[in-house]
């Protein structure tokens, strides 16, 4: 089972935190701990980290030899981190991270860190089309994208009437519609190509 | 979308603009105060609520604690506008956890959304349950979720979510889900066209099957078939290829699922699996340039190797796998090295022959010094698993050397593992003591109490070891800095066995005392207490140092620690008694050996597993451990009297009773009722047993109707005909027998104008030791409208049997339907004709003699319209049951006499004679069967009796 999905940038600021197991301690401590474990690892080391240190954070009953593993991947300025137990295949999770990034990329057209900040709700919706309750829901990027689009459409339809100030729009990919967001200082792209 | 709320965007931009943390906090506090006020004032419209809740969520994501907005989130959920509903659900899943009181308020809104006609609403609701659902939701909503999962009108994206949601509810509250009864219906979805649905349902099945292996047994063949279609037939939607690998996720899941079941006995499935695994391994022989492609392919490969190891460690597949693994562990890619070592540890933990792995021992030991700690951990696990008597000294030596430089996080586990290996594979006592003491002195703080307890236990129970142990531990104590654990061991061993070495130079009582006492001041109170006990033992054996010892006691009589003081006072009083007093001697009697018990070390390493989480399919350690584990898993699946004798293993009722009485009286009770420990499944009758028990055991409930019985009876004495028919399905049979082997061709005809999907056939044999039946191949999962499909069944008769195999057929045609019927495979099918003359016949007839080898019955018969006995029918039944009807033996032409030889592969051949004497006037008939086997005689009599008798026959 997947216990947590975290995204933070290279300075340790969390951009997405999603826990599928209730936490024993504060989420901030956990992300800091994971960040300190991961950021010290050089790029040539493997993408897996045994994490007995983390067990006190997650309400993990002592299963027999059951160890949590951290599977992470670094894309440009962001770390994508999954905390999983032994029932998951490590490489499978690595694939899943790639699927997640590709789905984000589809939804945001060349996703960057700022998209994750300003569209945090959307990122959660996309994640919820991939993982549900700690289990993999869908791995097919087409399907994920389709589901995200359907939801976006439904939202758009209900949106105009809900927002008296709305300038219309609100579908995925229309992130700059009528609003001045400081998109100028893009920190970097994190599309799948250069991923390790 | 968040950015369409201007206030929110501004808020986010402000926070991003904050240059220092304080400014950021200030901005957030201001916003929260504002939101709190707005919420308090009330009178907000949906848009405003949504905006404020979104701000709260954003604050939460930044890592701040939030305590407002819960109620508003609950309100948003019941909003009719999707955008508001969505933010409401997002807030609920992020801000609340499963025990939150607010969740009670949303149960009804969620149920409403589940029952809504709008699938997007269904999805939101399902997703919320899957994230925060607890016991209460499980009780209230599991039926609704299940309905969405199985409803034929559900969209596949709803069913996917429903499957995972159901899984979540099952994990949280297994009692509310009738897992066994839903088994067939749920497994049927594994045949779905949409691979996304299959992935989710496989996850669900995997969790349920672990707790209900028998009920979900059908999933084995489904998984094998799906793998075949993916890997060999390449039958999948193009979008499910991930970098050219067909849905690696699904493959991994299926391969993992198969590892929860014991290796299959079915030859057909075995062959397919072999082919699948072979193909997967071949696919990986050429590494590709693309990282993602490689990852995906390896993910599947490692799981496939895992399955190959699980199926049979001696198969050629595993040999291939070992070669691959050897290449992986010296790969340049760290990920591959890591997984190679991990999988090799799996192999080492299961295989009987470690040679292939030992070949690479050097590489593995080198991996202990890999630059990546993750790899180092895997190498440690592997070394632990691959250790045996031959290489234990080398491996333990390496581990000890590595221990001194190992990461702190790793040390405690290493100490435990070294201690276990040293104990398990010790070749000499000397080596054991040397190693374990070196371990204690080297690892110090990382040595748990279990380790030194165990040393004491072993030294106490091994007399030859005692003098040597005493000497060595003394040498260790002489070094200037010894760890406290070492002092404890030393205190204990020298106290008990110091006198064994006291006569040798350098080990005089005075020297022992001086060295041990010099450590005392650095130790904690419990250790000092232990040392006091050592001293009192010495008072008994070393009168020459009594004075010094009394001195110590004297001083300790005034310390503050209660325990120390009490001991000192008591020991002082004891030691001060007259020299000829026997009390001290009696008290300081040498301790008796410990009763043999399970090593506490292993217990610590293999802690109990939790209930509904996915279990590991293997643990680190040798194959014995894994075998034990499998047995105890099987034993614990059906809880019996439970944990009676306290050491963690579960015994069946009778054994436990035995244990208790034996330990109480030490008597040999040979009359204990062992029969009660039999598995309960053997007593279940597929017609009358309660449905839930049948489902749990995976036994299909027999379909009952007068027609079914008539068809069955007819086929018992004919070789082809209809076995079953209803408005949708027709099942016909053609059969052929030769000796103890039989072959059945079963025809399934779809009579309706829609396809039958998820078509599944399984065979259930109640007496597997007497008869075996298996399909030649897996049935196609779909039968097109108005077509027929044929399945071959191979049958082998091993011993006399009375329960024909059950064929169960299930399919989806709108609803899910299951038919279970007995196959017309009865013991007389394995009779072969034999020709006997009159003299021969009667000679054998007499030789066999009367009961119990004779079975006889008298029953009424009905006459035909003309008032005659229906001789042709009788003849048809008798010869249909494969008896050779012998002419001219019985003087009465109406009587029938027959003979046959029953062929069985295990019990060999058994002769069988029959005589049928109808009487027209009395409308009665006498049937006599004589056979060299009582069971056969009784069974054949029963079979022939049934169609002939007027009371029981179906005409």
List keywords for this structure.
heterodimer; A: 196 residues; alpha+beta; five-stranded antiparallel β-sheet; B: 955 residues; 39 helices; protein transport (chain B); membrane (chain B); coated pit (chain B); ARM-type_fold (chain B); Coatomer/calthrin_app_sub_C (chain B)
Quick overview:
With 196 residues, chain A is an alpha+beta fold. In chain A, 36% of the residues lie in helices and 18% in strands. Chain A contains five helices and seven strands, in the order ββαβββαααββα.
Descriptive notes:
The complex is a heterodimer of chains A (196) and B (955). Chain A is an alpha+beta fold. Chain A is 36% helix and 18% strand. Chain A is built from five helices and seven strands. In chain A, the strands form two sheets. Chain A has a five-stranded antiparallel beta sheet with strand order 2-1-5-4-3, with helices on both faces. A two-stranded antiparallel sheet of chain A has the order 6-7. In chain A, helix 2 (90-108) crosses helix 5 and helix 4 packs across helix 5 (141-162). The radius of gyration of chain A is 17 Å and the shape is globular. The two termini of chain A are 23 Å apart. Mean pLDDT of chain A is 75; it is low at 61-65 and 166-196. Chain B has 955 residues and is of the alpha+beta class. In chain B, the strands form four sheets. In chain B, strands 11, 12, 13, 14, 15 and 16 form a six-stranded antiparallel beta sheet that branches. Chain B has a five-stranded antiparallel beta sheet with strand order 3-4-5-8-7. In chain B, a hairpin with a 2-residue loop joins strand 1 (241-242) and strand 2 (245-246). The two termini of chain B are 74 Å apart. Mean pLDDT of chain B is 81; it is low at 607-611 and 635-682. Classes of the chains: A alpha+beta (196), B alpha+beta (955). The interface between A and B is large, with 89 and 93 residues. Chain B: Belongs to the adaptor complexes large subunit family. Chain B: Keywords: Coated pit, Endocytosis, Membrane, Protein transport, Transport. Chain B: Adaptins are components of the adaptor complexes which link clathrin to receptors in coated vesicles. Clathrin-associated protein complexes are believed to interact with the cytoplasmic tails of membrane proteins, leading to their selection and concentration.
């Amino acid at each position: 089972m997947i216990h947590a999905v975290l995204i933070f940038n290279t300075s340790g600021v969390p951009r997405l935190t999603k826990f599928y197991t209730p936490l024993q301690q504060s989420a901030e401590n956990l992300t800091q701990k994971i960040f300190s474990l991961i950021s010290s690892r050089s790029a040539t080391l493997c993408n897996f980290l045994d994490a007995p240190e983390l067990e006190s954070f997650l309400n993990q009953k002592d299963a027999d030899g059951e160890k949590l593993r951290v599977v992470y991947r670094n894309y440009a300025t962001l770390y994508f981190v999954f905390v999983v137990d032994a029932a998951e295949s490590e490489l499978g999770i690595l694939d899943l991270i790639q699927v997640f990034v590709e789905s984000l990329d589809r939804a945001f057209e060349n996703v960057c860190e700022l998209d994750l900040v300003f569209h945090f709700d959307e990122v959660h919706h996309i994640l919820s089309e991939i993982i549900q309750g700690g289990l993999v829901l869908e791995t097919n990027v087409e399907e994920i994208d389709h589901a995200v689009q359907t939801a976006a459409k439904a939202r758009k339809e209900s949106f105009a009437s809900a927002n008296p100030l709305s300038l219309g729009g609100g579908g995925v990919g229309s992130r700059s519609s009528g609003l001045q967001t400081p998109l100028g200082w893009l920190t970097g792209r994190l599309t799948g190509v250069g991923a390790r | 979308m968040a950015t369409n709320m201007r206030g929110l965007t501004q808020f986010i931009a402000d926070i991003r603009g904050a240059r220092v943390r304080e400014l950021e906090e200030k901005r957030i506090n201001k916003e929260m105060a504002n939101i709190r006020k707005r919420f308090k004032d009330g009178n907000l419209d949906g848009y405003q609520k949504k905006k404020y809740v979104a701000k709260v969520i954003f604050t939460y994501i930044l890592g701040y604690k939030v305590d407002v907005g819960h109620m508003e989130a609950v309100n948003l959920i019941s909003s009719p506008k999707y955008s508001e509903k969505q933010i409401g659900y997002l807030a609920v899943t992020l801000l609340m956890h499963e025990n939150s009181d607010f969740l009670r308020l949303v149960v009804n809104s969620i149920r409403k959304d589940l029952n809504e006609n709008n699938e997007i609403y269904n999805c939101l609701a399902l997703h919320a349950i899957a994230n925060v659902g607890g016991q209460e939701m499980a009780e209230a909503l599991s039926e609704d979720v299940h309905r969405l999962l199985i409803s034929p009108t559900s969209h596949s994206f709803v069913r996917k979510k429903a499957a995972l949601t159901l899984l979540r509810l099952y994990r949280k509250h297994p009692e509310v889900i009738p897992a066994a009864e839903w088994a067939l219906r749920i497994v049927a979805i594994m045949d779905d066209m949409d691979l996304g649905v299959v992935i989710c349902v496989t996850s669900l099945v995997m969790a349920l099957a672990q707790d209900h292996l028998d009920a979900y047994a059908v999933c084995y063949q489904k998984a094998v078939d799906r793998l075949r279609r993916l890997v060999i037939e390449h039958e999948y939607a193009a979008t499910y290829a991930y970098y050219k690998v067909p849905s690696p996720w699904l493959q991994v899941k299926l391969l993992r699922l198969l590892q929860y079941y014991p290796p299959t006995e079915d030859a057909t499935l075995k062959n397919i699996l072999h082919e699948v695994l072979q193909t997967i391994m071949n696919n990986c022989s050429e590494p590709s340039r693309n990282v993602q492609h490689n990852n995906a392919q390896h993910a599947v490969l490692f799981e496939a190797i895992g399955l190959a190891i699980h199926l049979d460690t001696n198969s050629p597949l595993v040999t291939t796998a070992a070669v691959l693994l050897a290449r992986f562990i010296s790969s340049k890619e760290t990920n591959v090295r890591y997984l190679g070592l991990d999988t090799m540890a799996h192999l080492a933990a299961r295989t009987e022959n470690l040679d292939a792995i030992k070949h690479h021992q050097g590489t593995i030991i080198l991996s202990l010094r890999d630059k990546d700690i993750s790899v180092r951990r895997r190498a440690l696990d592997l070394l632990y698993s691959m250790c045996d008597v031959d290489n234990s000294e080398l491996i333990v030596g390496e581990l000890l050397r590595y221990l001194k430089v190992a990461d702190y996080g790793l040390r405690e586990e290493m100490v435990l593992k070294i201690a276990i290996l040293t104990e398990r594979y010790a070749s000499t006592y000397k080596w054991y003591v040397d190693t374990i003491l070196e371990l204690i002195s080297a690892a110090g703080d990382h040595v748990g109490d279990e380790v030194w307890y165990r040393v004491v236990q072993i030294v106490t129970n091994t007399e030859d070891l005692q003098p040597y142990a005493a000497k060595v531990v003394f040498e260790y104590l002489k070094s200037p800095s010894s760890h406290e654990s070492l002092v404890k061991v030393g205190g204990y061993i020298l106290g008990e066995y110091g006198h064994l070495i006291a006569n040798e130079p350098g080990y005089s009582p005075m020297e022992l005392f001086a060295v041990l006492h010099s450590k005392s001041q650095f130790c904690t109170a419990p250790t000092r207490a232990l040392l006091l006990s050592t001293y009192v033992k010495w008072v008994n054996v070393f009168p020459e140092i009594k004075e010094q010892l009394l001195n110590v006691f004297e001083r300790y009589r005034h310390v503050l620690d209660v325990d120390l003081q009490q001991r000192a006072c008591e020991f002082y009083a004891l030691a001060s008694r007259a020299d000829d007093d026997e009390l001290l001697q009696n008290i300081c009697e040498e301790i008796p050996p410990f009763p043999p018990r399970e090593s506490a070390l292993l217990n610590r390493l293999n802690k109990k597993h939790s209930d509904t989480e996915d279990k590991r399919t293997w643990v680190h350690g040798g194959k014995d451990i894994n075998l034990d584990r499998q047995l105890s898993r099987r034993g614990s699946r059906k809880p019996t009297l439970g944990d009676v004798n306290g050491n963690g293993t579960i015994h069946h009722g009778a054994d436990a009773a035995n244990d208790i009485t034996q330990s109480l009286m030490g008597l040999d009770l040979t009359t204990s009722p062992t029969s009660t420990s039999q598995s309960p499944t053997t007593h279940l009758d597929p017609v009358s047993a309660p449905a839930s028990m049948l489902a749990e055991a995976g036994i299909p409930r027999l379909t009952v109707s007068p027609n079914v019985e008539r068809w069955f009876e007819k086929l018992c004495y004919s070789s082809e005909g209809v076995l079953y028919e209803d408005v949708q399905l027709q099942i016909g049979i053609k059969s052929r027998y030769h000796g103890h082997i039989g072959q059945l061709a079963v025809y399934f005809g779809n009579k309706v104008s829609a396809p039958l999907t998820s078509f599944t056939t399984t065979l259930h044999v109640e007496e597997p030791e007497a008869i075996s039946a298996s399909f030649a191949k897996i049935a196609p999962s779909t039968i097109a409208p108005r077509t027929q499909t044929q399945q071959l069944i191979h049958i082998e008769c091993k011993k006399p049997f009375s329960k024909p195999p059950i064929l169960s057929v299930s399919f989806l045609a709108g609803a899910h339907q299951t038919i279970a019927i007995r196959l017309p495979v009865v013991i007389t099918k394995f009779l072969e004709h034999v020709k006997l003359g009159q003299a021969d016949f009667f000679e054998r007839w007499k030789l066999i003699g009367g009961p119990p080898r004779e079975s006889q019955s008298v029953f009424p018969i009905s006459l035909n319209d003309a008032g005659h006995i229906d001789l042709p029918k009788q003849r048809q039944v008798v010869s249909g049951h494969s008896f050779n009807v012998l002419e001219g033996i019985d003087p009465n032409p109406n009587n029938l006499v027959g003979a046959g030889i029953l062929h069985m592969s295990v019990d060999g051949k058994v002769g069988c004679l029959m005589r049928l004497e109808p009487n027209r006037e009395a409308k009665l008939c006498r049937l006599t069967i004589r056979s060299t086997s009582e069971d056969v005689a009784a069974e054949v009599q029963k079979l022939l009796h049934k169609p002939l008798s007027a009371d029981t026959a179906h005409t």
